[in-house]
Design goal:
Blueprint (H helix, E strand, L loop, with lengths): L3 H12 L3 H8 L3 H9 L6 H11 L3 H5 L23 E2 L5 E6 L3 E2 L2 E2 L1 E6 L4 E3 L2 E4 L1 E84 L2 E9 L2 E4 L10 H11 L5 H7 L5
Parallel strand pairs: 5-7, 6-8, 7-8, 8-9, 9-10
Antiparallel strand pairs: 1-2, 2-5, 3-4
Helix pairs in contact: 2-3
Length: 268
């Protein structure tokens, strides 16, 4: 007669889940799954309900000794993303989860886990409260391309973003664009970097803005630095572009031409 821990291990392996996969679906640790499967611990009733739904088996057969009894669909409902769009989730709230059976690099192609509370998603395309993937969308997202409240990635878009290229209210990256931008190249209301453009621009090399502070500083209102250019007409078009480009060339002779052109594009 099969006991709970034996059934759990069999069902998990039938579905091709690792202990970590199942742990993420239940929002528990991998160690908790290991203890359940060894028979040294037993899940609480909420987790038992979730297990019965994930594997498409009756709660009765899962808990009692005896054979596994699948639901009316033979345990297949879990394979269809829209068959069961809402299930019991974290803190008793409702939510939706779908993980594709197809994988790439060992990750599901799509993992969606949305609803109230902390919901983790990990896949090539991941959507969840905490999302990790090549393309990640979530409150906290980490990926090649990520977007969310807090985004970490090669290309990060969010309220707070950190990446090689980042866009956000507060953006930090090699190229940063935001209300507050900090980066090698920074564009923002407040821009801090090596090359900065903004209302307030602070740079180690070139700063262009309303108030500019840098080695080469080009300002509409304030310009402070080693080489300074202050507009005489109330806007940056009142600054001589050729004069600024010449000064940059003298101060930074090895600087790439595209940076020089980009930093002086709005000048007269």
């Amino acid at each position: 007669m099969m006991q709970f821990h034996e059934k759990l291990q069999q069902l998990r392996k039938e579905r091709g889940f690792s202990q970590e996969d199942l742990a993420e679906r239940l929002s528990v640790s991998r160690q908790a799954i290991s203890k359940w499967e060894s028979g040294s611990a037993y899940p609480e009733i909420e987790k038992l309900v979730q297990l019965s739904e994930i594997f498409g088996v009756t709660l009765d057969s899962l808990m009692k000794e005896g054979p596994i009894e699948y639901g009316r669909d033979g345990g297949q409902s879990r394979d269809f993303p829209f068959y069961r769009p809402f299930r019991q989730g974290f803190w008793g709230t409702r939510g939706y989860e779908y993980k594709s059976k197809s994988t790439l690099f060992g990750l599901p192609l799509v993992h969606i886990n949305v609803g109230f509370g902390l919901r983790r998603a990990k896949g090539v395309i991941a959507i969840g409260t905490l999302a990790r993937g090549l393309i990640a969308i979530g409150l906290l997202s980490m990926g090649l391309l990520s977007t969310g409240l807090l985004s970490l990635g090669l290309l990060a878009i969010g309220v707070f973003s950190l990446g090689l290229a980042s866009v956000g209210t507060i953006a930090v990256g090699a190229i940063a664009i935001g209300a507050v931008a900090i980066g090698l190249i920074a564009l923002g209301a407040v821009a801090i970097g090596m090359f900065s453009t903004g209302a307030v621009a602070v740079a180690s090399h070139i700063a262009v803005g309303h108030n500019a502070y840098g080695h080469v500083a080009v300002g509409q209102n304030v310009a402070e630095g080693v080489r300074t250019f202050l507009s005489t007409t109330g806007n940056l078009r009142g600054v001589d572009r050729i004069a600024v480009q010449t000064a940059i060339g003298e101060e930074f002779p090895n600087l790439w031409n595209w940076i020089v052109r980009w930093m002086t594009i709005g000048l007269g």
